[in-house]
Design a protein that fits this description.
Blueprint lengths: L6 E5 L5 H12 L2 E7 L11 E4 L5 H15 L4 E4 L4 E2 L8 H29 L2 E6 L12 H21 L4 E8 L10 E2 L9 H16 L4 H13 L6 E4 L1 H12 L2 H11 L5
Parallel strand pairs: 1-2, 1-4, 2-3, 4-6, 5-8, 6-7, 7-9
Helix pairs in contact: 1-6, 2-3, 3-4
């Protein structure tokens, strides 16, 4: 396909933030883009078709895939971006809350992927890009459950890529660092807060606000997604932004004791 006709892209969680910016970047690059949101939204002024989809609902997921197929007959690119955060001590969340986070971040990705794989297999071509995070590579104090979902996405995506590669399908990870998006937009607080964590949780939230304000623009992540989408022979993972690349290098090549000490220093935790 020419640059002006890249194919059909479906981007989840495209109502705002990274998802919306990514959808716009793919549109500029020549894709016909469908974005999803949990609530009805008008199509964007520049031509992104918005469809309703709740990734925690099997029927909703299948319906959105069926609608895209009805309109276009194919899906060339799926970007699994929909996700939620959770800030608090791991102990402060009930298993019900933990399951809810996994239902969006992990099982939502799996639902969308399972729905498009038969389509891509019939086409003998397709690419799935899963939004991970540098927190899928390192420990994340007071983000343990969120980090756990991203660690899960890492293992799932890399394994699935090996399974479907002979079918003409590739599965790729994009790992953003800290990105400037609305902090309140997708963060959840623990459902059983404990007094023992009040002070350190407040410090962790303050630190997160500070680093988010200084983070990469969403356009950095969007550009990486476009790169991963169009690479003739894609890598299994792409870091998005300088900081993400540095974290990946540190985690991969430096001693565990150094990583541990550096992480505690960064999070302003005592030795």
């Amino acid at each position: 396909m020419s640059k002006k006709e890249r194919g059909i892209a479906l981007v989840t969680g495209a109502s705002s933030g990274i998802g919306l910016v990514t959808a716009k970047a793919l549109l500029r690059d020549g894709y016909r883009v469908f974005g999803t949101s949990r609530k009805p939204m008008a199509d964007t002024a520049d031509g992104i078709t918005m469809l309703v989809c709740d990734v925690i609902d099997d029927q909703s997921v299948q319906s959105v895939v069926d609608e895209v197929l009805k309109r276009t007959g194919r899906i060339d690119l799926l970007v699994n971006n929909a996700g939620i955060g959770l800030l608090g001590g791991a102990e402060e969340s009930t298993t019900a809350q933990a399951k809810a986070v996994f239902d969006v971040n992990v099982f939502g990705t799996m639902r969308m992927t399972n729905a498009v794989l038969p389509v891509m297999r019939r086409q003998r071509s397709g690419r799935i890009i899963n939004l991970s995070s540098i927190l899928g590579l390192i420990p994340a104090p007071f983000n343990a459950l969120y980090a756990a979902t991203k660690h899960a996405i890492e293992g799932y995506s890399e394994s699935l890529d090996h399974e479907v590669r002979t079918q003409g399908i590739r599965v790729v990870l994009v790992e953003p660092g800290v990105t400037r998006t609305s902090f309140e937009e997708n963060i959840t607080r623990p459902d059983r807060p404990l007094a023992v964590y009040d002070a350190v949780r407040a410090d962790a939230e303050k630190l997160m606000r500070e680093i988010v304000s200084k983070g990469d623009a969403p356009e950095v992540v969007a550009a990486t997604v476009v790169k991963a989408a169009n690479a003739p022979s894609p890598k299994r993972r792409y870091t998005a932004g300088k900081a993400a690349g540095q974290v990946r290098f540190i985690r991969r090549f430096l001693p565990e004791s150094f990583v541990d000490k550096s992480l505690r220093k960064f999070n302003k935790l005592p030795d």
